[in-house]
Every structure is written in C-alpha cells, then in structure tokens.
Amino acid sequence: MQQTSGTQLTREYRIEGMDCADCARHVTAAISSVPGVAACDVFLGSERAVVHLHTEIANDTSNDVDATIRASVAQAGYRVGDDEASAGLAEARHASRTALRLLAGVSVVVLLIVVLGEWFGLLDGVTDRVPWYVSLLVLLAVGFRPLLVVLRNALRGRVVSHSLMTVGAVAAALAGQWSTAAIVVVFMRVGAYAEAATAGRSRSALRELTAMAPRTARRIDEDGAESQVAVAEVAVGDRVVVRPGEAVPTDGEVIDGEAYLDQSAITGESQPVAAAAGVRVFAASLVSGGALVVRVTAAGEDTTFARVIRLVQDAERNRAVVERAADRFSGYYLPIVAVIAGATWFFTRDISATIAVMVVACSCSFALATPIAMLASIGAAAREGVLIKGGATIESLARVSVVLLDKTGTVTTGKPRLVASLPLIDNEASLLRLAASVEQRSEHPIAEALRREAVERGIVPATVERFRAVPGIGVEAVVDGSLVSVRRADAAGKLPTGATDTANPAEWAREQEAAGRTVLCVHQSPVDQPDQRRLAGLLATSDRVRPAVAEAVARLRELGIDHIELITGDNRGSAEQVAAELGIACRAGLLPQDKIAVVREHQARGARVAMIGDGVNDAPALAGADVGIAMGAAGSDVAVESAHVALMGDDWLTVPLLFQIARRTMRVVRLNIGFTAVYNLLGLSLAALGLLPPVIAAAAQSLPDLGILANSSRLLRLPAALQSGRARAAVEAAPNEP
After folding, report:
1. Of these residues, 406, 570, 626, 650, which one is catalytic?
2. What does the pLDDT read at residue 736?
3. Rounded to an integer, what distance in angstroms lies between the CA atom of residue 23 and that of residue 327?
4. Quick check: 231 and 300 in contact, CB under 8 A?
C-alpha cells in the first residue's frame, strides 16, 4: 500500500520472520539505514513495516529504494512477504496446529533423550564415539539459519536473543563437547519455533479479522450488466449487487432489494438486522434471505471495516508502560547474563557451568510477555466489535475507578420523539417548520427527531442561511428573513411567566421537565437586531434508556467500580429521572467545557476516569479522560478517531466486557512476567552453581516462550460471564422447542 502526504511518501511492507520486540527493533534499524528513508515504524503483531520516504528519493527512477529496503531486511535475517492476505487461512491455521503438535512431540522425545543421556552418561559415550566432524555437520545443518542471523547481526555490532546460545555452543565445541554443542543448537531452533508459534498465535485473531474483508464485488455497469471486479476497482457512486451468502464489498446505501444482514464483523452483534432501501450498510456484512443493490459511499481503505482493521493494526503503537519497561529490560538482560557467565568462569573455572549460564537465559520471553497478551486481547475484542487502541488503553482500563456517562445517544437510545409543543405565535405546524428548518444541518439526536417529525407530518423545511451551532446550547440560522434559534430551555434565558391563550410558558416547561422531557425554546428576531427576539414556542422531546444499561451498570459495580455518574447537557429533571432509574448520581445542564472540568476534577483526586459517550458532541471529554469510550461508533469517523475505545455496536453489555478483558489481560501479563522472572532467576542460579548441565539448560530455554503461549492463548477466548450472557440472549430470542 502506498500513500503520499506533503514531501513524504508512505509505503507498507509485510515482514516475515519476526518473533519478538527485539526482531522488530532490528528490522527498524535495517530499514532506517536505507538512504531516503525518513522514518520507519515496525509492528510485530500485524507483521508490518510502515516506511516514510522522502518523495524525491522514492520517485527517482535510478534509485530502486524498494529493492534496497527488501535487501536490507533480508540481510538482517528477515523477509519482505507478499501484501495479499492468504486465501487459505483455514488451511494455514490447521497447518499451524499440526506444526505445534509436531513441535511438542519432537521436544518431548528430544528432552527425554537428553535427560536419559545426561543421567546415565550416554552423552559422554556419544561424544567419545561420534567423530567431531559429524557433530559439526549436525550443528550446521540444524542451526544454519539462526546461526547465520546471529553472525550477520554480530558483524553489525548487534546482540540478538540467540547470541549467547551461539557463544555457548561454540564454547562447548571448542571444549570438545560436540554432542552438547549440537543439542544446544537443536534447542536453539526449537526455541525459535516456539517464539514464532507464540507470536503467530497472538496474531491469529487479527489475521482472521483481516481475512473477512471481501476481495471482489459484482458491479453494475452503465449498460445494466453485472461484472465481477476486484474491490479496489470499485469507486464511490458505483452500484453493486450482493446476493445471499455473499459479503457486502463496500460501505453504501441500499437502493433496491430486501434482505437480512449479519454485521458481526463490524458491531460484534450476531443477530441479523433487516435491510431495505435507504438503509446504510457496511463492508464485510453477510447477506441472507434476499439480494441487495447498494450504492457505494466508501470503498477500499475508506470503509468502516478497513478502518477497524487499520486501528487494530496500529494499536501496537500505543504501548503500555509495563510493555515499554519490559522492552528496556530485555535490552539490558543479555549483557547482564554475559557478566554472570564471565563471573561464573572467573570464580569456578567450570566451562560446563559457564555454557549453561549462557544457554539457559531467555531474553525474548521478557519482550514477549506483555505484547503477546495485549495483541491477543486486542484481536479477540475486535472480533466482538470492540476496538481498543493499544496496550496503554488496556492498562488504564484495568485501573479505572470512575465511570462518567453521557445521556443522549449513549445511555438513552438517541432517537427521541417530539411528544408535546406549545406554539405562542402561530400554529404547531409553523413552529415545527421553523425548528426543523434550523436543525437541518445539525447532527444532534434531537435535531434528527424534529426533522423526522416534520417529514412524518408532510412539513417541508425552508432553505436556511448562516447556520451556526453553539455546542451544548443550540443552533441558529436565518429562515424566511428572520433569525431563528433553537435552544435548550435552561440555555435560552428566562421564560415568560404570564399566561397565554394556551398556557404559562414557564410553568409548561417545568411540568415537561418534571416528566423527564427535554424542553426546547424556539425564538425569532430580526436579522439585524438579534437582541430583539421573541419566543415563538416551546417543544418537548422524550427519549428512553437503552436496553441492558441497568444490567451493565450493575456489572460495573460488581467489578468494583462504585462511582458511576451521569453528566449531561440536558435539563435536571430529565437527567435525574434517568439517573434514578439506573441508581447513579448525575450532573445536568453541562456545556462541553463543563464535562471536561468534571473529568479533571476526578483526575485531580487521583482517580482513573473512563468517559462513555456517543463520540460526536462528547469528543473533547472522550479525549480528556484517561479512557474515552465511544458507543455505537460504526460509521462515525469522529467517534472512531477521538475515543481510546470504540464500541461499534450499541450493546451495553460490551461495556463491562471491556473492563473484564482489560483486567484479565493485565493478570495474564503479570503472570507472564512473574513466570519469566522466576524461570530466569532460578535457571541462572542453578546454572552458575553447576547444578544445571548445559544440555538441560538448552532444553529448558524454550519453556518460558511455551508458557507465555499457553497463558496468553486464554485471552483469545471470551470470558465465561459474557459467553453465558450471549447464550442467554440467544436462547431468549430463539423459539421454544417442544
């Protein structure tokens, strides 16, 4: 993939052969050394290198910078792979499982031979009977590739994870322990496979997500004929046909046909939704029960599904504090082990103990302990329609103690209805026409309610000029030569208290707010005299709380989050009614800057704050919180970009799931790091004391990687609590069996 921005051109490469953060650093250094490269970011989880090139270098036909980058990566011991995703993903997963089983079986057999050979002295006999050149051939045949990587990096002055094992194998060979040297190299290869399997397993969720992206589309040509083309050839405005069993290739709007859509790839919701003319659809949604004709509104890299994949891939950039600390420590670890090996030789003159110290150390496990768990969780969450932007977000989520909730469009459905009106100048239809006209360009849910009501009543909005929105207050525009504003009652100033032919405006507003409704004031004034405004009438809208919000709040309390608060720009009566229904505190009448002040107030007390909003009018508060969570973010660029977490669907039960995932991930990370630390401390101690023979040390070297793989793989499965909740929902939705 290639993009151009200003004086730089960006290219992406798929890098094969990376197993840990150390590998990613080496690839970064290799690519950065190429002339013309301005910057380079390498992502282990998605196996990508994002390279920023100076445009004049990239466009120089005499300088094949692409070939130079590929050669530099190859010299570092890695490969630049094909950009296309494998079509045989299922076969690849099966092959991976088979390889893991074979690896485990071979490891057990070799470990058994090593242990028996060490205990019964068989290796000494083998060393005496097998010529040295035979052992050398075995050593080179089995360990050629890892030894070549070590040699290449050594020539560049770099130390990699297998450098000490290589030195240990060479030392054993020079000491005449050829069998020991060969076994060390064998387990070096086994360790490399274990690291590759560990990293590959963590990538599986992301690969499965990527494989869901449609590759082809049935485009309707100008003559009405259908032609099957690559998705990359589809443009905005084209029409495509999607038949039953096929995936929607692009984002778009249905213009003909009726069907059901499985949008689980985007929202995580497995229940199909009905689609007909006028309904918005997303790429990767599966069609059943009919065919659809869709007008394309976004294609290729601009679709919602493509943004989901891109955000998951880029999540590695936002690394947790514990992950950065582990990376730094792994960089110092090998020199520390080298010092310990030198001290062992200096004080004991025991070559076997010195070799054992060098081969038992496992630096990759420190670097793998955190990112493997983070990548597994991020990928698994993405399959459920939950986009988590990096390990730092997971780390913050696990420590959240305060949750703030927006009301309209978040806690409530975001689809309010006009339930009452009080026209003061003309009739109700004229009042609604003024309000709907001004609200034409607003994206607020209440604006949508007024527009929808006008359409249902056959009222045609007027053309407006000089539209202006004031966040948290309302909107205004010029309609039919008058300046018309629509504002919340508490932001519109003092209401008239005198009775009219219909009612007392102030009293009417209080009654509506007491009933939990939102009151809007519609004012008119001359364009050149905005201060001379008069009240044209009042409108009252009502919304309802989303299903499962109460259950989600209860689950958050079960997780130990006691301070849950509703913060809204709506009136106090409406806010208090919703808050009472949920059993939480509330603050009403807040402007966007007031919401940020509430966030900072809690942060000043030392709390970690999560803000849950719709991602549109709450973008500043979402960005200011420790963790901003956007609900129902599918199709909303603002929500996906502004929040730290984007919940693509509207299922509130994914909110406690998110906190469960974060806490579970951090428990796994701590266990990974603890297990790795204990293993290395114990292994180095036994090796330095001469209690751990080199062959046993070599065999044990891959154990931390396999332990991290087994422990982190648990994160690829959803918590049992959520599984039971989804199962219960499915059972309730299904017909009863006799």
Report:
1. 406
2. 38
3. 12
4. yes
Half-sphere exposure of 501 (CA within 13 A, CB side): 6
The Cα 44–Cα 96 span in angstroms is 18
Residue 438 burial class via C-beta count within 10 angstroms: exposed 0-12, middle 13-18, buried 19 and up? buried
For 319, phi then psi, to 5°, come to: -85, 150
Residue 406 annotated among the catalytic residues of the structure: yes
Work out the end-to-end distance of the chain between its first and last CA atoms, rounded to an integer number of angstroms: 55
Q: If we measure between CA atoms, which residue out of 176, 334, 195 comes closest to residue 694? A: 176
β-bridge partners, 613:
630
Give the orientation angle of helix 363-383 with respect to helix 654-688, to 10 degrees: 170
Residues 361-400 as b/e (b if ≥16 CB within 10 A, e otherwise) read: bbbbbbbbbbbbbbbbbbbbbbbbbbbbbbbbbbbbbbeb
Residue 609: per-residue pLDDT: 93
Q: DSSP label at 231?
A: G
- DSSP strand E in 552-663: where? 563-567, 585-587, 609-613, 627-631, 645-647
3-state class (DSSP) for residue 95? helix
Round to whole Å and give the CA distance between 307 and 325.
30
Give the pLDDT of residue 731.
35
Q: Which residue from 682, 700, 683, 708 is spatially nearest to 183, judged by alpha carbons? A: 700
Q: How far apart are CA 174 and CA 614, in angstroms?
A: 67
- DSSP conformation letters of 337-376: HHHHHHHHHHHH--HHHHHHHHHH--HHHHHHHHHHHHHH
Pairing of strands 402-405, 563-567: parallel
The residue among 208, 268, 298 whose CA lies nearest residue 647 is: 268
Phi, psi of 353 (to 5 degrees): -65, -40
Neighbours of 158 (CB within 10 A): 16
Query: Rounded distance, CA 207 to CA 192, Å?
Result: 21
Amino acid found at 454: A
Query: Please, what's the b/e burial string for 108-135 (b: 16 or more CB within 10 A of its CB; e: otherwise)?
Result: eebbeebeebbeeeebeebbeeeeeeeb
CB neighbour class for 409 (10 Å; exposed up to 12, middle 13-18, buried from 19): buried
- Going along the chain from its start, the domains and CATH numbers come out as 2-81 (3.30.70.100), 103-205+330-364+675-714 (no CATH), 216-246+250-298 (2.70.150.10), 378-412+545-662 (3.40.50.1000), 417-542 (3.40.1110.10)
pTM of the predicted model over 0.85: no
pLDDT digits (tens, 9 = 90+) for 637-650: 555 666 788 887 77
Mean pLDDT by 10 residues, the chain (738 residues): 60 78 78 86 75 74 78 84 47 45 54 56 60 71 72 70 70 70 70 59 58 82 84 89 86 88 65 79 82 89 76 58 65 80 89 85 70 78 80 88 88 83 86 89 82 88 84 82 83 53 76 83 86 86 86 92 88 83 88 84 91 73 85 60 78 88 90 86 89 79 74 72 44 37
pLDDT score of 556: 93
253 vs 271: CA distance, rounded Å: 20
Count CA within 13 A, CB hemisphere, residue 43: 26
